[in-house]
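Possible regression after last week's pipeline update?

I re-ran a chain I had predicted before the update to compare outputs. Posting the input and the new output here so someone can diff against the archived version. Not blocking, just want to make sure nothing changed silently.
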Amino acid sequence: MKKSPTGQLAVFLNVIKWLLLASAVGSIVGLSTAAFLKALGWVTTLTHGFSYYFLMLPAALFASEALARALAPEAAGGGTDRVIKAVNRRSGKVAPLVAPVKFVASIITIAAGGSAGKEGPCAQIGAGLASVTSSLLKFDDKDRKKLVICGISAGFSAVFGTPIAGAIFGLEVLFAGGLLYEVLLPSFLAGIISYHVSSYLGVVYFNEPLRFSPVISGGGLFFLKVCLSGVFFGFCSFLFINVSRGIEKVVHLAGLRISLKAALGGLVLVLLSFAFSTKYLGLGLDPLERALEGMPAPYISFLAKMLFTAVTLGFGGSGGNITPIFFIGATAGSTFGSMLGMDLSFSAAIGMVSLLAGCADTPVSASIMALELFGPRVAPYAAIACVLSFVLSGPRSIYPSQISKIEKSSF
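New output (post-update):
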């Protein structure tokens, strides 16, 4: 059936409307993301000037938790799951105080050494700003939800430095096995603009293609190793999800007061730092980059980072879990690659994106991220590992509020 000229004009005007709105949200979120990352870098440099900075963790987690609970309870804990819940259950409604509170609480947690990511805060700040914009413009629930999704995608794009994968991730993470195609165009635009705004403001990203050319030899032995790696990363994803859920459940069953819970979590992190190493604290970008450069990681690295991250977020620290997932995936890839005799840069790279696919149930955006970060020679193999990790990671996701629209396996 042909559309009438009036109907075609309505479609055209709607596209123009969302191009303008997505551009505005992308600019705002790019600015806020750059401000957050700059502030986080400055405060982290300041705190890390002290040799035993991590001794501040009990006080920092207490302050972060108390601030969030007093002013904006939605800002407590991990940011990504909170925005998923806001979109799936409240049509994108986010309290106005969430963005500033999340900004401050996450800096306090991460700068003191909490093992948490920077993407969760950026996504939640982006969602909060988009929600406030929707309220000012008096949008209905449907348009508010769409604009908040644009804010989420813009936040991920700006913090990852991958505008396409970030935009797709913002859509894919909401519904495992489904994409909201009606928000695809504005999400792409918001993500691209947010990325360019943050780049213009001085945010630097790691996006160098790996200097590695995969060579298939031995009758498909290399391809078999990639498949085995995908299976291993699926197991690692399953393990991290269940360790995180397990610690959250133990903390909940213990019935600790909020103040005591956060301080105790900080104390546990201090003890873990003395027992293992301080390199598992904070964002952990240096060990992550070394793994991607081909330097072998200690075999215990990925397991230790799982524990540090689960304790940080399970006991009330504020931040995301995707940056730790990158750390876990890259070091797990380095470990498994050394066992199979693979190039360590390559195995770390596919581990980094495959663990994201398995933990967050986002194989499409993880595969695209491999292309954007590591180049076209690595991407096909990474995509295979991502899908295997996604399928074999089990029915759960690192985000409890995510809605699953598929059954991975009837078996």
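Follow-up from reviewer: compared with the archived run. The chain has two domains: 15-200, 221-404. Marking as no regression found.
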